[in-house]
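Subject: for your reference before the review

Hello V.,

The reviewers asked for a structural picture of the protein, and I figured it would be easier to keep everything in one thread rather than splitting it across files. Below is the amino acid sequence we used in the manuscript, unchanged from the supplementary table.
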Amino acid sequence: MSSGPFPAIAKALRLGLTLALLVSLAGTLWRLDGLRRDPAFAMLVDTTSTRIAARLDRMAAEGITQAAYDAKMQTLLDAEPRNWLAIEAVEEAASAEGLAQPPDIAARRAEAEALDHGWLATGGKCAACMWDPKACEFSAILWCRAPVDLTPVGDIAGVVRESGNYALGYEVDMFDLTLSAVGLGAEILIPLTFGTSASVKVGATLLRTGRHMGAVTPAMARFIARTGREAINWNILATTRLGRLSDDLPRAVDPSRLRPLMALAETTGDLRGTIGLRRSLHVLRFADDPAEAARLARAVEAGGPRTVGRLEFLGKSRVFRATLRYADEVVALGIAAFGLATALIVLVGNLVLSFLLRRLHRGVRARPVRGDLRHV
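And here is what came back from the structure prediction:
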């Protein structure tokens, strides 16, 4: 007696699934090997400005609530000294989401503003800022330190002072010396390092000012100082003259090692062009390395000045995630892995089903027939 077409169909199905499984496995292994061999491979890559803006809008709608706004303002108003740029940025971000300022917080803010922004208070802050850059507040930096730090005067002073210390064997502020040299010699260094923007000089001087104010993170400061030690021959620059800088600087620089620092300076300079000096100095503290600075610049480019307040609410991790997407290779690998898992599950399920059907078939054949059914 024929057992019917089902065993043949099940066998053909198992064969097809096995072949699909082998093909999917081979494809997955091939893609993994290709990714392993590719030195430029990254799971996450930059996404478009349009997508960044849409993601930031969605995150802001979810994360900037009335309760979060009230708590954030209380914290900022309790701080000493108060960061008025952060206060204004938080208010701007909350207003964009349609939130209102409660009367008690509005009263506290007005009282704090009168206390911090009076003529006597402002004059004292400016004097302290001129004496010690670390004492500068964002409200004072524009008119107190800018005339020195954001002009060639500051770069010249930095190069002369720290080069003299280097030549005499004294302790050298390698961070300040490196950025002073980059800022002063930006026009010379840009061709050497394949730079494309005069914002390198602006970025270098802005990083110097930010560091003086404590706006540059320790990790970023270490990167800049380390790059200066490795990329520039300071023995040459220690004996140069201002008139010979254009000749000596190219001889002293290793372009390949200096290029990441030039890219960082350019990114920082672009930040200032997008959101201004004060906001740029504030958001610098959210970047620990050049890669994070680049993500920060992309977020600011897509979201505009509102990004400053959103950083305060959402934190840098969430804002940075909005600038990235999974690479096409990762998506393809995920699809291949899903196909492999699906084929494996179906194959195992088919084997289990076939096993159960065989057991059931054997049980039916082994069961004795009671009586003669022909006479029923």
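For the response letter, the relevant points are probably these. The chain has a mean pLDDT of 78. The first helix runs from residue 6 to 37.

Happy to draft the paragraph if you're swamped.

O.
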